[in-house]
Amino acid sequence: MKLLRTTVAALLLATLSGCSLFGEKVEVPPAYVGKILTKNGYKPETVTPSKFRLDSCFAYCDRLVLLEASDSGKTEKFALFMPKDQLNMSFDVRMTISVDDSKIDNVFDRIPPQKGVIASNMIYITYAQPVIRDVVRQVMAKYTINEVASSRERISQELFDSVTQALRGTPMNVKRFGLADVQFPAVITKAKEAAAKRREQIAREQAQFEIQKIQLERELEQAKMMRAIDREKAEATKEVNAILAKSVTDKYLAYRSLEVLDKMADSENKVFVPVEALGTVGLQQAVFADQVSKTANSK
To answer: How far apart are alpha carbons 284 and 280 in whole angstroms?
Structure first.
């Protein structure tokens, strides 16, 4: 009897070891979706973030497979030969990319999970990376290096449009795409630095010219003011002379002559000569004879 009970217990344990009476506890975390994988394939419904228990099972148990559905940032590095310049240029493209919700079933069917998870990077490498690398090279090869330097925003928009079109029909959606960390050839960089120095020098010379221009304009204004002052002085002198010319008459001159004679009369060293006789020949001869006589007596 004891042997029988032991045998039955062993058989029951062996039976129960291949089954789960209550089902496994599982979870679909945020930014993921899941599907239940049965022995006949995936169940049709997609499981959104939640916690639940799998169905009880016997011999074969269902499994939860997760798919990473979050937005993912990616960077692709390029070292590209630019045909129009015959030079090499390196740059990055940075993007935000995610799985298209309408294509989730296709992803589950076509990409095998690793440890129960289909990572977004696996989807990116499978569907997006080869397309993006090819499209970026095609677009960038159309431009010169100078065009890339001056039109990065426009080229980034063209890259976004071209990549979005190329990925249409795949499980990937592009939400943002653009150029970044552009490394120009050394010869281009040196040329740009030299051009920047020339622009800076021109700006300094222009500023100096403006300063000199202001100084010259100020000096010109000062010269105009001085000329205006000189003109006013000349006009004033002219007006005074005009007034004097009108005021000095013959009667005024005769009066002034009498004043002079009056002052001379007070002096002891004098010879009185009528004013009217100053210009006559006889007076001049008399003065000459008197001077000769004074000279002879002094000898």
So the answer is: 7
Whole-number mean pLDDT of the chain?
Answer: 82
**Section 40-64 average pLDDT:** 92
pLDDT attached to residue 251: 67
CA distances from 187 to 29, 78, 86, 194, 196 (A): 52, 19, 12, 11, 14
DSSP structure string for 32-91: EEEEEEETTEE-SSPBPSEEEEPPPEESB--EEEEEE-S-EEEEEEEEEEETTTTEEEEE
The domains found in the chain, sorted by start residue, are 11-68 (no CATH), 72-184 (3.30.479.30), 250-298 (no CATH)
Contact in structure between 70 and 120 (CB atoms under 8 Å)? yes
For 14-28, the pLDDT digits (tens) are 444 445 567 899 999
